[in-house]
Amino acid sequence: MVIKFLPGCLPLPIALYIHVPFCIKKCFYCDFTSYPVDPGAVEAYLDALSQEINLYGADLPEGEKVLSSLFVGGGTPTCLPAKRIKEVLEDVRSGFKLLPGCEVTVEANPGTVDLDGLLELKAAGVNRLSIGVQSFQDSLLQTLGRIHSAGEAVKAVRLAREAGFSNLNLDLIFGIPGQTIDDWRETLAIAVDLAPEHIAAYGLQIEKGTPLERAVARGELETCPEETELSMFLAAIDYLPTHAYKHYEISNFARPGRECIHNLVYWLNRPYLGLGPAAHSCLRNERFNNESLLEKYLEKLSREEYPVETRVKLSGEIQMSDTMLLGLRLTGGVDLDSFYRGFGKKVEDIYRKELAGLMEMKLIELGGGFLRLTRRGLPVANYVFRQFV
Question: What does the pLDDT look like over 299-353, one tens digit per residue?
């Protein structure tokens, strides 16, 4: 699948993200906005979300309400009854236009799904599930504070197939304290045996203020050695392509034609709209984010105000920088012709010094009209990105 958008203009369609800020239990490594499931808070959130959908549905011009993708993330969307997710999707359809074949993804925790709920999601128009497996070792799942077991993760995939889902993503994490390279290889092998259409393999980030960070600070856990984490990353990018998973983004692998359309919108620096607490948007050369605190989100919508916390206008320089940072995440790289047509300037002219230094270190390469990371550059992508800020 090849998707091209020109930078600097608003194409049709856009991507819509909806944040569900509830979990059965917060994972030890998570710093996303989420709250324990509470029936009263859930009802208040759903009412406010419906109002936010209606506000945008009424105010946005028709050309900005056409969706290529809809992604319901969290938190844990599947900690809500499937019928409530169905109602959210119905609200979206009343305010926005979903293109034929629109990718509709719901994130799912293996500990919160059953066949009846999955059947209801499928009937509601969900055509892609992203299942948060993370690991197939129970001890590592306990280290992460996950509520499911490895066996439940396998069962969730099988239930999703039984419910009729033909597009599945499995999220996996490497670099977990106590994880060995053999653990990681076993997780990759089990994932491949389950034959999802998409696999996301992320290195663990130990975020400040999380229970995992505090456990490391107290000496209860040791971080994964950098050399082991590098070996795990290289194991993924070497192993998965041999099983028909194309490595198309630093952390993402897909069967042919199964790249995540929603995430491609982000990586190609195209417009997207985020709804729900802490959701981020990028529309009309402006970035903005919603209130993170549920109370503030609810309060603003109770006054029929957009629940936006901050807005930032994007200069041409920022848009060019963002296009480089995001586009270099793709293994195909930044399309130099699209960049020139979008901004009227050549990448080679704007970033001449930066390109020369990175090429000398063999971290990036030019070829076929694209600028991309080399194999050597992939593990140190963040260093490369900083050169374009």
Answer: 999 999 999 999 999 999 999 999 999 999 999 999 999 999 999 999 999 999 9
Q: Which residues contact 275 (CB under 8 A, 6 or more apart)?
A: 16, 17, 18, 19, 49, 52, 53, 56, 290
* pLDDT band for position 11 (cuts 50, 70, 90): very low
3-state secondary structure of 21: coil
SS3 at position 114: coil
Distance CA 148, CA 144 (A): 11
Q: Which of 189, 143, 144, 142 is nearest to 170 (CA)?
A: 189
Q: Where are the domains of the chain?
A: 14-267, 333-386
Tokens of 246: 């194309």
- CA separation for the pair 132, 153 (Å, rounded): 8
Tokens of 201: 């393999």
Number of Cβ within 10 Å of residue 250's Cβ equals 20
Pairing of strands 168-174, 128-134: parallel
Q: Measure the CA–CA gap between 38 and 379, rounded to whole angstroms.
A: 41
Give the three-class secondary structure for 371: strand
pLDDT of residue 5 exceeding 60, the answer is no
Report strand pairing: 14-20 vs 66-74: parallel
Domain 14-267, CATH: 3.20.20.70
